[in-house]
Design a protein that fits this description.
- The protein has helices at residues 40-44, 50-69, 88-99, 112-125, 141-148, 156-167, 209-221, 238-251, 276-281, 286-298, 304-328, 356-368, 373-387, 391-401, 407-418, 435-441, 462-473, 475-478, 485-493, 496-510, and strands spanning 8-11, 33-37, 74-77, 103-107, 129-132, 171-172, 175-176.
- The protein is mostly helical and 512 residues long.
- The longest helix is centred in the middle third of the chain and has 25 residues, at 304-328.
- The protein is globular and about 80 Å long.
- The N and C termini lie far apart (57 Å).
- The chain binds flavin-adenine dinucleotide and iron/sulfur cluster.
- Flavin-adenine dinucleotide binds at residues 272-276, 279-280, 310, 313-314, 317-318, 321, 372-373, 376-377, 381, 398, 402, 404-405, 409-410, 413-414, 417-418.
Length: 512
Amino acid sequence: MTAIKLRNLIVVCGDQLDHDSVALDGFDPARDAILMTEAAEEATYIWQSKRRIALFFAAMRHFRDAQRKVERTVLYNALDDEKAPGSLASGLKTTIAQYDPEQVIMVQPGDWRVRETLEDAAGKTGVPFSMLEDGHFFTTIHDFMGFADGRKRFIMEDFYRMMRKQTGLLMDDGQPAGGAWNYDKDNRKAFGKNGPGLIAPRAHYQPDPVTLDVLRLVEKRFADSPGTLENFGEPVTREDALHALDDFVANRLRDFGMHQDAMWDGSSTLNHSRISAALNLKLIGPREACDAAIAAYEEGAAPLNAVEGFVRQILGWREWVRGLYWTRMPDYADLNALGADRSIPDFFWTGNTDMACLRDMITRLLRTGYAHHIERLMGMGLYLMMIGTRPYDTHDWHMGLYLDAIDWVSLPNMLGMSQHADGGIVGTKPYCASGAYIDRMSNYCNGCRFDPKQSTGERACPFTTLYWDFLARHEERFSDNRRMALQVNNLRRKDVHELKIIRARAEKLRNI
Ligand SMILES: Cc1cc2nc3c(=O)[nH]c(=O)nc-3n(C[C@H](O)[C@H](O)[C@H](O)COP(=O)(O)OP(=O)(O)OC[C@H]3O[C@@H](n4cnc5c(N)ncnc54)[C@H](O)[C@@H]3O)c2cc1C
Ligand code: SF4
C-alpha cells in the first residue's frame, strides 16, 4: 500500500479518552490522525474480568465516534478486525510504516509498562516521539517532585493542604473553608442497627448498539475470563459520565462523609460516587468533579464534612498516589517490606468462602467490578496482607477485577496503602485490624458462622486469628513505630500459650 504522509500521529490509549487532551491541541484534520488500538495483549497480560475489558473497549469505540463526529481522522484497530494487531506496539509500528508521520505524539500513559513499550516501538522506527504531560490532573509530575524534594515529612496531608492553597478549592481568604482542613471527626460512622436506609440507586446506562457489539465480542473472545457482563450499565461516554457525577452530587453526596467507611451486606454503592472508572478513563476531569461538589456546598445542598471529604479523595489522594507512582517507578513495583511470600487464595477469584464478609465483597466485585474503599482496604486487602500474600500479586489481582484499576493508581494503593509493602511511604503504619473492626463498621458478622471476638476454636474469626499472628510475626519491626505502640503492647500482654494456639491456627489459614 502507498504510504500516506501524516504530520502528527496521535496515540490515544484506552485510559486517555479525554476530549480536552493536550495531545489534540492544534489538531489539523487535513494532516493529523488519531491512532487507537484494541490490543488483545492488553486484555490478557493479566487475567482480567470480562467487565473490565468491555468497559475499556466500549468507551474507546464511543470516543472514536465522538472524534469522528468533529471531523477528526481516527485510525482504529478493533479487536475483531481481520488484521488486528495483537499489541499496542505492533499497532503503532504498522501504522507508522503505513502513514509515515513526521512525529508521534501521546500523553503520558497510565502504566510504566505501556510507556516503555511504546517508546521502544516508536524508537525502532526512527520517528520522533513526544510524550506530553497529562493535563487531566491538577498537578504535574515535575511539581510533585518539587514538593517531595528534600522533604523530611512526606505525608499526603501536607501535599493536600498545599493543593488546596494552590487551587483555591474550599479556601476562604487563604484559610480552609469552615476553619478546619478536615472534618473526619464527623465522618467514619457506621450505619447502626437499621442499616443505610433508602439510598438512591446509582443510575444505569443502557448499552447502545456500539456497547452491545463490544459485549458480544468480549463474551465470545474472553469466555473463560472471570466475572460477568450481565446487567452492564457503566457510563462509557462523556455525557453519561457527566450524568453519573450529577446523579451522585444530587442524590448521595450529602451523606458521603458521614458513612464513607461504613459497609453493609449486599450493598456496593451506598453513598459513594462510583465515578472512579469514568475519571480514570478521563471521560470526566477531577476539577469538574470537585467543582460540582463544591457548588452543592455553596448552594447549601451538601454539608462541608461531605464535600471536603470528597474533595480530599480527589485533590489529595488521587493526585498524591499518581505523583508517588511516577516518581518511584520502576523500583516501587518490587517492594516487599514485610517479606510476604504466599499466593492469592483461590476463593479471591470466586467468592467461595465461609467468611460472610469476604464472600459478599468478592462475589459483588465479580458481578460489578466495584467495591468501595473500605471494602478494599479493611476487607479484602486486609485479609491478603495478614495472610502474607506477595504484594505484586495482590496488585495483579486488583488490576484484573476492578473497573477503575490502572497501574498508576492501583499499585500505590494496593502494594503501598493496603499491603504496607513500601514500608511506610503511602501510609505510616499498616492498616491491620481484627474482625472487631468489620463487626463495628458493618452487619456482616451477624450472618457469619464465625465470631469476630474469638481468635481460637471452631468459631474463631479468621481475621481475628490472623491479626494476632500478623502482629507477632512483625513485632520487632512494628515496635519501632509509635503509631503501632498500642497494638504491640496488647500483643505483649497476650497469654503465651494462647498465642501459640492462635499462631498454629493462623499458619493453617495462611496455607489455604
Ligand atoms: C487497596 C486499594 C486499591 C485501590 N485501587 C484503586 C484503583 O485501582 N483505582 C482507583 O481509582 N482507586 C483505587 N483506590 C481508591 C478508592 O478505593 C477508589 O477510588 C474508590 O473506591 C472508587 O469508588 P468511588 O468512585 O465510589 O469513590 P468515592 O469513595 O466516591 O471517592 C471519590 C473519588 O476519590 C478518588 N479516590 C479516593 N480514594 C483514592 C485513592 N486512595 N487513590 C486514588 N483515588 C482515590 C477516586 O477517584 C474516587 O472516585 C484503591 C483503594 C484501596 C484501598
Ligand atoms: S466474623 Fe469474621 S469472617 Fe465473619 S463476617 Fe465477621 S469479620 Fe468476616
